[in-house]
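[step 3/7] fold_predict: job queued, chain A
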Amino acid sequence: MSFATHFSQNVVLSTQLLYIKKTAMKKLFLLCGVLLLTASLSFAQQGPPPPHISIEVIVGSRPPNTHERSLMAAEEANHPNIAQSMHDMENAMKHLNAAPDNFGGHKGQAQADIRQAWISLRKALYYRLYADTH
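[step 4/7] structure written:
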């Protein structure tokens, strides 16, 4: 086999390999593009997360942030009887805190019971945020 024949066969093989590589790269880029588009569309369809108030806010261990405060005000406006009950319990807790301490431990028990009832009301009211969006 002459050098020219051998050289031309190598050129043909190189050209074919280059074509195969280019085709494979195009397919890979197309596949990546389709995957990226699919992921973007599925993320976009999810929409915003449901309204949420942290459990720390509900039980009173931290103050609400601005977003949570607005959610709480809206929910209290939608359910005024529950909101009034919560405020009455807050008022009762203030009065109990101002009372003397000589009630044989019953004052402390009443404070704990009122606080637990207050937390239960808050959980019930703010649960509606989640339930109304599902």
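[step 5/7] annotate
Residues 3-46 form the longest helix (44 residues).
Residues 50 and 134 are 8 Å apart (CA to CA).
exit 0
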